[in-house]
Amino acid sequence: MSYRFEIDGDKHGYFSRIVASNGETTHVSEQYTTKAAAIKTAERLLVDILEQNRVGNRIEIRDVTGEDPTL
Fold this sequence. Notes:
The chain is α+β, with helices and mostly antiparallel strands and 71 residues long. The protein has one domain: Double Stranded RNA Binding Domain, CATH 3.30.160. Strands 1-2-3 form a three-stranded antiparallel sheet. The chain is globular and about 35 Å long.
């Protein structure tokens, strides 16, 4: 499976997200007032993910909401 970062939004707010090749979408950023800020967030996330992978660290997804973990 492959993944891509997308920047979306309009003059009212922009955000970055990760989209998988199967069409599943995960939003990864809060809303920003400029497109440049959303792009910077995506760039920082990608650099961090690549570095974690390079040094052999696992990339984790954690539920830190404090809510009941059952879906």
